Structures are given as structure tokens and as C-alpha cells.
Amino acid sequence: MAEVINIIGGLVSAVDLNTALAMLVGLSMGVLIGVLPGMGPLLGAALAIPFTYYLDPVPSIGLLIGIYQGGNYGGAITATVLGIPGTPMAAATLLDAYPMALKGQASEAVTLAAVASFFGTVFSGVLLIILAKPLAKIALGFGPAETMALALLGLTTIAALSQGSTIKGLIAGLFGLSIATIGNDPITGLTRFNFGRTELEGGIALVSMFMGIFAVSELLLQIERPVRAFQATERVGIDFTMFRTLGNKIRLYICSSLLGVAIGIIPVVGNSTASFFSYKLAKDLSKRPEGFGKGEADGVIASEAANSACTGGALIPMLALGIPGDPVVAVVMGGLLIQGLTPGPTLFFTQPDVLTGIFGAFLMGGILLLPIGLASISIFIRVLRTPLSILMAAVLLLLILGTFWVQRYILDLWQLWFFGIVGYGMRKTGYPLAPVAIGYVLGPIFEVNLRRTTIVMSGDFLGYMMSRPITMTLLVLVGIALLLPVFQSYIAHRTQRHRQEPSGKN
Amino acid sequence: MRVDLKNLIPGLCGLVFGGWLVYETFLLDVDLAYSVGGGMSAAGYPRLLGLGILGLSALIICKSILKRFLERAVANGQEESSVDRSGLKKVGVAVLGLVIYTLLLNTVGYLIITPFVLALVMILVGARNWLYILATSILLTISLHLVSLYVFHIMLPEGLLE
User: Fold this and answer.
1) How far apart are the first and last CA of chain A?
2) In 3D, which of A264, A309, A277 has the Cα closest to residue A119?
3) CB–CB of A174 and B52 under 8 A?
4) Residue A241: what pLDDT?
5) Quick check: B42 and A185 in contact, CB under 8 A?
6) Given pLDDT bands bounded at 50, 70 and 90, which one contains residue B49?
7) Inter-chain touch B14–A455, beta carbons under 8 Å
8) pLDDT of amino acid A81
9) C-beta of residue A45 within 8 angstroms of C-beta of residue A332
């Protein structure tokens, strides 16, 4: 009963003016960024990070979550109107939303996408509230070995299963862990690798690093190969009859959302995978599978509901265990760190009001997503006509000022450009960026717990590990995560060889 | 034998970074760095990371060289995926512009130098109308300066306007 009262209290406190405004701004910014191809919620969250310094904890996380939720939906508008996914997670939505638009049903498609996003987000918000605390309670019993193994699992999974080669992912992860060592050692206080600069004693500026590696690298890519301007001429509005699908297709909504939450919990798998999985499942179970890909409403519902439900799922391991499941959640985690809050099981018991405020903000975002998403359709379609040069100039200026506003150090700008060039180089040579960000945020947790483990085990590695079954299990999962891409590559190679062999022998 | 620059260059960068990291850990004050009660030291952990980067980067380079050695020569002398040199030049110009901007920001001042870097980026992504470039870069500079001053109460570098 006390738990329920706490949650309701948190939800009510989340409705305070600051949080509501932050959610509104975040959602609007997120939808806008999602609409623009090549942008995406990650860029939006990275740009918004400096503004979180000026807000209280709940509104600041609300702003970032709003961008995450809005960005996941915004891509569906572009997918419907232009046949181009505004974000990678809208790629599955495009398969049926664009054919619907071609048949003159664009309003139905965008409305359906908004309704499905609303349902998926709210559903995942409820599961977030139900699952996060019990998971955190289990994690409270973890010692340094378990925490170290969990951080290693999170990092290895993201490094090994990211796009591109496993080795490159691991190098990216190690690079992220390395830059987290700059500054004062968390155990002895010794200053490491600060190049004699007192500004670096606190470590690399999180804002510079995130904005550099994600946003500046994207800017440089756009400079290298500018995307052409888009012309969206279709008149699109709201079709209120689509709300009826919440009644007659409720099973599809629930199944797709459940799948989205489940996939969101697993690090790195991500929204795009969730939406394609859900799309395929809906097609396989549909009475009209031949209609998929030709403008079938169920395809739009399945992909958008799963994609949006992923947002809540991805927050569960971050809040409960301190392990971010994807790059956007890593930025949200960065927002918590800026506020002096370390996500993980202890946060549930040291700052319960902040967490219930975050849960309330998440649910509020899901509810507000529907009216904002619908109201902004025609406005944001016009934004697609904004020349790229204006957008890039505005993004660059926001990057410069966003970095400068935090500490007013010119050194932060140098860090911004450094990480931007590194991020650009990594993208050009096939190195994933997510492991760098996640290595950076997990670095201190991993280092402290690894070194504590080495102190506690006093040289008896095997004996100590045998007495920690949870640690052993997590380390086995780390091994599986590292070997899985090798195994998949071997199977793919064998399948290809089998196909290339001449059929039939004399 | 053609060299796979796409893997060789980052591999070499990884070797340099990993080597530098390992080297720097030996310069840390060992007595001060040793944890109370033994265990991994403040120097030991980054050393482990550096060795990991060194090893994996060496693996990338070896794989790249081995792959090229075993591959047949490209048929008919065709070029493999060609590098977009004009694109890289534009990125180089952008980076140079950003470096110069950062060097001069405090001396010249935000209001004077920012329109130049914005105009540079606009030209690099394809804008050609000078009036449009000028108006956009000046308007953006001034409007965000006002936001900085009146919303966040943060003074931006004044430089020559001081």
C-alpha cells in the first residue's frame, strides 16, 4: 500500500510545472528531430545535455526522456510522407505506412503511428514501474564482483553485438573505458593523464565527449556528403477513426508492446530490431499476411508499438542496475550523473522521490505524446523543407554554446572537436560509437568494483569466483556474448558455401 | 598488394594510443598509486586497458594485411571503393575553421567571429546565396547571444568589443 501511495505521489509531483514544461519541450524537440532524416533522438539528447545543468533532477531527466520518446515517433511521419525513415527505428513502419500514403491514406497512417506510439510508451512505462524496483532489490545484494561482472557484461554485449566487427567494438569499448580514467583515481585520488591541466582533474567533460562523438561527427558527415533537401507536398491531417483500433486490435497492441519491452531490456538489441521482430511476428500471425507491405494497418501498429515500448524497456536496466542498454539511454544516464545521481540499485533507496518523479515523467510523456504527435504533424512536415545549411548552422552554434555554457572553459571546446574528429574517423572506418559512450559512463563503476574485487580475492581468483555463482554466471554470459558473433559468422559462411556448391553430382 | 587503409590507419592509431597509455602508466608515482591492502593499482588498471587496445589493434592490422595478401588482385585493375577526396577536403576545411575559431574566440570575441564559422559551414553544405548566408549567420549569432545573456545570464567572450 505504501508503495502504491509513493508511486501515486511521484506521479503527482511529476505534474509540477517545471517537469511538465520540460516534457513538452523534450517531446516537441524529439518529434522535430525524429522527423529530420539523419538526426535522431541520440543527437537531440546530446544537444540537450548542457541544458540539464540548469534544471532540477526530475525535469532534466524528463527533458531527455521526452526527446527519446518523441524522437522514436517522429521518424514515422517522414517514413509515411516521404518513404524515407526519419530514424532507423521507423524503417519497419515505412513498410506499410508509405504504401498507405500512396493509396491516399497518409492521415490514417500517421494517426495510427501516433496511437501505437502512445500505447507502447504508456504500456512500457507501467512495466518500468512494476519491474525496476524488484530488479534493483535483487541487485542490492550484489558485491563488487557481481557489479564488476554486470558492468563487463553490459559493455561486452554492446561492443560484441554492435554493427561491424567484434574486435572494433571491443576497441571502442576499451577506448571509452580509457578516457574515463582521465582525472582523479576514484580509490586513491591520484591524478592520472591530465596533461598538467587542473581543468582535467575532474575528468573529461561529459557534455563535450557526448556531443563531440555523436553530434560533431554527424555534422562532419553531413559536410562531407550533404543530404539533399526534401519536398513533402502531401497534405496530411488527423484521422480520429484510427482510435477505434485501440479496441478492436488491442491484442496486437499488447503483444507488440510486450515484445518491445522485452527487447529493450537486453542491451544493444535496440528499437530497430524490436520493430522488425514485432512486424514479422504480426505478419506471421495475421489472417492476411499477403497484405503486409502493401498498406496493412497491422504492420504500422506492430512496428510503432514495439519501437516505442523499447524506450521503457531500455530504462529498466539503466535505473535498476546502472547499465545503459543503448546510446540514448547512456546519454540519459549522463544526465543523471550531471545531477550528482548515480543510477543503480542504491538510487531506489537513497533518492526514491527522484525515481518516482522519473517514472511519473515517463508516463506523462507517453500520455502527452499523443496530442503533441498529432498536433505537430502538419507543422513538422513543413520543417522538412528547411534548407540543410540553416539546420547545420543552427546545430553547430548549439553545439558550441551548449559546451561553453557548462563551465565556460575553452578547453571544453577543444575536447568537443577532438571527440568529434575521433567520432567521424570511427564512423568512416566502421567502428561503432555506442561502446565508447557506454564505456565512458560505466568506466568508473567497472574500475572501482574490479579493483575492489582484486583486493577482496587476495590472489585466489579461482577460489573466490567459485564462491560467487552469480559472478560466474555473468562471466559465462560475457564469454557467450564474445563468441556469439564468431559463431554467427561461421554459420553464415557455411550457409553461403553450401549455396555456392554445385547442386547434384554425377 | 594494395593496403587496406580503412583498417590500417585506425589500427595504427590504436597502437599509438595503447602504447602511449601503457607508457604513461609507468610514469605514475607507483608508491602513491598502490592501493591499500594490495589488489590492482591506479596504474595497473589503465595499463591493462592499454595492453588490451594494443593487442586488439595489432590483431586488426594483422587481419587486414593477411586478408590483402590472400586476396586475388583486383580484376582488370579496377579501383576498389574510391575515397571521396572532395568530401574529405570539405571536412578538412571545416575542422581547420573550427580550430581557428576556437583559437580566436577569446581574442576576437563571439559576436565578431561566430558568423564567419557559421557562414563557412553553410557554404560547405551547399548554400550559395551570399545575402542569405550573411543574414542567417548574423541572425543566428545574435539571437543565441541574447538567449545566453538574458535566459542563462552567461556572458560570452567579448574580445575586441570589450
Assistant:
1) 77
2) A309
3) yes
4) 83
5) yes
6) very high
7) no
8) 80
9) yes
Residues across chain A: 506
Q: Please give the backbone phi and psi of residue B110, each rounded to the nearest 5 degrees, phi first.
A: -60, -50
What lies within 8 Å, CB to CB, of A64 at 6+ separation is A26, A45, A48, A49, A52, A331, A332, A335
Nearest to A73, CA basis, from A28, A124, A19, A24: A28
For residues A34 and A75, the answer to whether their CB atoms sit within 8 Å is yes
What confidence tens digit (pLDDT) does each residue in B106-132 have? Answer: 999 999 999 999 999 999 998 899 999
Quote the DSSP letter at residue A215: I
Distance CA A52, CA A139 (A): 28
Mean pLDDT of chain A: 84
Domain around A92: 2-494
- For the record, the C-alpha cell of A481 comes out as 556474448
Distance CA A103, CA B104 (A): 56
CA distance A219 to A211: 11
User: How many structural domains compose chain A?
Assistant: 1
Question: How far, in Å, CA of B162 to CA of B152, rounded?
Answer: 20
- Residue spans of the domains in chain B: they are 5-77, 85-161
DSSP conformation class of A214: I
* Number of Cβ pairs < 8 A linking chain A and chain B: 155
Asked whether residue A208 is assigned to any structural domain, the reply reads: yes
For residue A504, being part of any structural domain is answered with no
Tell me whether residues A405 and B152 touch, CB distance under 8 A.
yes
A115 with A107: CB under 8 angstroms? Answer: no
**CB contacts, 8 Å: B90 with chain A:** 223-224
Angle at A413 between CA A407 and CA A414, to 5 degrees: 125
Closest CA to A120 of A170, A80, A68: A68
Give the model confidence (pLDDT) of A31-40 as tens digits: 888 887 666 7
Closest alpha carbon within chain B to A171? B53
The x, y and z cell numbers of residue A410, run together, are 575553452
Residues making up chain B, counted from first to last: 162
Answer yes or no: is pLDDT of B77 > 60: no
* Residue A502 within any structural domain of the chain: no
